[in-house]
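Extended Data, panel c. Modelled sequence:
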Amino acid sequence: MVTAVVGARHALPLRNRWILTRQLKLILVFFTFTLLYLYTFPPPTFADTPTSTPAVSITPTQSMTVTPVPMRKYPLKVTVIPNPASGTKLNFRVMAPAPCKVRIRVNNRFFDVIAKLEKEGGTFFDIFWSLKEVPEGIYYFQAQIEDKATGQITQLPLQKFVVLK
């Protein structure tokens, strides 16, 4: 059996020495990750003074008042589905916080305007565009969204999509 001298008194076989160093490495890795976790996520702090929870009291009335639940508000966004497009039609998906009117200008790679699309809708709707006459390539579009309630017009940044045949 091959032995290695560790210190002046002990002689360990090489296999046991390898297992011992592997265990020490695992302990070191665990300790490192524990310290990293503790310093990345500090423990929660609690207030010294107790805080009270508001109590809800319900008093019966003759007429019932209904509070409307707020509708989900979408961020102002227009995306192309699918991208890259390979079929005969393309969807411009519109998400807006309120009902709106959308104008989309589609440009080819030379920035020539090849299509102008316009549609009114609610907060979430699609505008379809036929790709039958459109050759494959890289295209750009820019959407202009007009809020129906306020009349405010927002122009979104230029975006890119690809058509494959």
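The radius of gyration is 32 Å. This feature is highlighted in the accompanying rendering.
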